[in-house]
Amino acid sequence: MKHFTTVDWIDFVNHVAHPEREVGMQKHLAEGCKSCAAELERWMRIQRVAARENRYQPSRELVHMAKVAFSGSAWTRDRKNAKGTIELLFDSFRQPLLAGVRAVTIAPRRMLYLVDRLEIDVQVESQADGRTLVVTGQLLDLRHPGAVRDRRVTLSNLRGRTVETSTNEFGEFRQEIEDSGDLQLMLPGGSGEPFVITLPDVLGKAGGKSK
C-alpha cells in the first residue's frame, strides 16, 4: 500500500491540497491505512493546539510581571523587524515521483526560499548511518549580486541539540546534526535580523515515502 507524505497530510489538514488528491487521500483512509490515519491525527492535534494558542490572551497582571522580570534583558532593546516574509519558491518533496518509480532510499530534500533580498538554497540529506543529517546551503544577495559571507547559521533538531556554523566566502555553509526527524534553521535575513525555518519530519520518514 502506497502511503502519502507528511507534506500531503499538512496540506490536507490546512485544506490546501488539490481536490483530486484530497479525494484520493480520503479514499486511502477509508481503505484502513493505520499509519496515514495516525499521521493525519497528529497534524489535526497540532492544528487544534495552534488554534488554542492563537486565541490565548494573558492577563494584565501576567504581562506586567513579565515586563518587570525582563526589563533588564537585552531582548528589551529596540530591534528592527525583518522587512519581508519567508517565501518558499521550491521544495523537492512537493514534486511527484515519475510514474513507475519507487523510492528505495531516503532522498535528499532541497528547498529554495526568498527572504527580503536574500535567496536561500538548502539541502538536507541523511548520512549512511541513518543517525545524522547533513545540511548544506548557500545565501545569495539578489539586490547586490554576490555571496553573503560570514553569517551565522544555527541548526536545532528540536530535541535539545543545537549546532552552529557560518557561511564562507561563497555564501555556502555545511553542518551535521543528530537526526531526530525534525529540523529547525535560524539564518540571517536581508535586514540583518534572523528568521527561522521549522521543518517537522524533514525527510518524510514518518509519512512512509517509500513502499
Question: Briefly, what is this?
Answer:
25% of the residues lie in helices and 30% in strands.
Largest sheet: 6 strands, antiparallel
The CATH H-level superfamily of the largest domain is: Immunoglobulins
Number of domains: 2
In the predicted model, the low-confidence regions spanning at least 5 consecutive residues are 72-82
User: What is the level 1 CATH name of the largest domain?
Assistant: Mainly Beta
> What is Rg?
20 Å
Number of helices: 4
Strands, total number: 10
Order of helices and strands: HHHHEEEEEEEEEE
Give the end-to-end Cα distance, rounded to a whole number of Å. Answer: 7 Å
Mean pLDDT: 80
CATH topology of the largest domain: Immunoglobulin-like
Per the principal axes of the C-alpha atoms, what is the gross shape?
globular
Q: Residue share in helices?
A: 10-25%
- Computed structural class: alpha+beta
Assigned CATH architecture of the largest domain: Sandwich
- Strand-residue proportion: 25-35%
What's the helix and strand layout?
Blueprint: H1 6-13, H2 19-30, H3 34-55, H4 60-69, E1 86-91, E2 109-115, E3 118-126, E4 132-141, E5 146-147, E6 152-156, E7 162-166, E8 172-178, E9 183-188, E10 194-199
Antiparallel strand pairs: 1-2, 2-3, 3-4, 4-5, 4-8, 6-7, 6-9, 9-10
